[in-house]
Amino acid sequence: MQSPVLRSNPPRPKRVALSWAVLIMIWISSLTTLQAQDTLAPNAKSLPAEGSSEKAIAEYRQMLQDENPADLYVLKGKALWDQARGPKQRALSNCDLGLGGGVFKGAWTQLPRYFEDTKSVQDLESRLLSCMQDIQGFNSGELVRSDFSNPERVNLSLLAAYVASESEGLPFKVPLSNAAELEMYRAGKKLFYYRAGTHDFSCSTCHSDDSRRIRLQDLPNLTTQAGAGFAYGSWPAYRLSTGSVWTMQQRLADCFRQQRFPKPIFASHATIALSVYMGVNANGAKAAAPGLKR
Amino acid sequence: MSDPMRIRLQSVAGVTTVKVLMSHEMESGQRRGEDGRIIPIWNIQDVSASWNGKVVMTAEWGGGISKNPFMQFAVKGTKPGDKISITWKDNRGDSRTDEVLVT
Fold first, then answer.
1. Considering the domain boundaries, does residue A283 fall inside one?
2. Which residues contact A151 (CB under 8 A, 6 or more apart)?
3. Which residue from B minimizes the CA distance to A70?
4. pLDDT, tens digit, for every residue of A212-266?
5. A40 occurs within a structural domain
6. Residues of A with CB below 8 A from B33's CB?
7. Fewer C-beta within 10 Å: chain B N or C terminus?
8. Residue A33 located in a structural domain
């Protein structure tokens, strides 16, 4: 689409006009594609709905409302949780997600948080990674270096979907109760507004304004409680476009890609800091994971 | 081994709406993998629903049906305690049946 034709044969108006027509057609078709790629808002009422595409998406979501395919993966995650796995052949049963070993309800709505045993602020995925290492004997470094298609990383996403589903409907209470959590919040906020890359983008370019939009459909404004609650509160989610469950870590990695940033390291401080920032902004909003996305 | 379906029923005045979510890859046989080779076709081909053992709906499916398919239909004249059962068969010969009772 860089139209090498234009460069190699400069003075040919007819062909130039034709190329432009083709380019415009490609542009229009890409708009249509984008239209189909909108996020399926669970609380569409709180977001400004515009045009028929939003309506069609809302209708589609209504049809699937009770039957989110994510539920199938939550069942798999639950089975994985109770199964003796890994080099140590043990179940995760006593994994402490912040409220004590094996306590689920409300655990996810208070993550990320500081954990005494690892001396770090951890989000859901990094905490599960610690448990898989400490309890089951998985090599967490190896898992961090692999990608999202690694079978154990897929399992981790299913476990995350299961844990999150246990907090459905509960309000977020992401803590800022000590220096480490506060530091992560500040780092997350800084990263959110940090412009970089070939496109000079930051997260805030697409996610900090209610009245403007960067593509046809609305994107959540993550600086507000409603927007952050909608976005942070609905991942892990089933993505219809990939037919798989994505966690917030994978969502963030893809946002980095769309910004043309280098790939973030899985469960790294940077990704957790962004989750702290979003989670704290979402405080008070209700958890709606596992969500359903386009 | 196949994973269980999720079947939910909603009954209003003798009409039961059946919502079924199936767990299946539904590979169309048209896609290519990273190695450039066609990913072999693997999808549900026959679906049938029965009400107290009597077949009330059948469907022939193929590559145009999405992964983890969702299906909805209604049965008239149901009573509490009636049994609704759904069966699918795929092209690999695998099949699965799940059933629920009308409440």
1. yes
2. none
3. B68
4. 888 877 889 999 999 999 999 999 999 988 889 999 999 999 999 999 999 999 9
5. no
6. none
7. N
8. no
CATH number at residue A59: 1.10.760.10
**Would you say residue A196 lies in a domain?**
yes
pTM: 0.77
Number of Cβ within 10 Å of residue A87's Cβ equals 9
Contact between A72 and B19 using a beta-carbon 8 Å cutoff? no
Asked if B6 is an interface residue toward chain A (Cβ–Cβ < 8 A), one would say yes
How many Cβ atoms are within 10 Å of A282's Cβ, its own excluded? Answer: 26
Q: Give just the sign of the alpha carbon dihedral A118, A122, A125, A128.
A: positive
Give me the residues paired with residue B80 across strands: none
Question: What is the structure's pLDDT at B63?
Answer: 86
- Measured CA to CA, the distance from residue A108 to residue A96 in angstroms comes to 11
The answer to whether the CB atoms of A67 and B4 lie below 8 A apart is: no
Domain membership of residue A263 as a residue range: 52-293
For the stretch A113-151, pLDDT in tens is 999 999 999 999 999 999 999 999 999 999 999 999 999
Determine, for residues B21 and A67 on separate chains, whether the beta-carbon distance falls below 8 Å: yes
Higher pLDDT, A179 or A15: A179
**B76 in reach of chain A (CB within 8 A):** no
**Among B70, B68, B93, B96, which Cα is nearest to B17's?**
B70
Q: Which residues of B touch A74 (CB under 8 A)?
A: none
Kindly list the residues from chain B whose CB atom is less than 8 angstroms away from the CB atom of residue A158: none
Q: Is any Cβ of chain B less than 8 angstroms from the Cβ of A154?
A: no
Residues 223-242 of A with CB under 8 A from B: 240
B4 touches B20 (CB < 8 A): no
Residues of B within 8 A of A78 (CB-CB) are none
The answer to whether residue A255 is catalytic is: yes
Both structure tokens of A20: 């432009």
List the structure tokens of B35: 């190695």
Question: Which ranges of A37-91 would DSSP assign to H, the alpha helix?
Answer: 51-64, 70-82
CA distance A218 to A214: 8
CATH superfamily of B6-101: Immunoglobulins (2.60.40.10)
Chain B, 13 to 52: residues with Cβ < 8 Å from chain A are 19, 21, 23
H or E segment and range at residue B86: strand B83-90
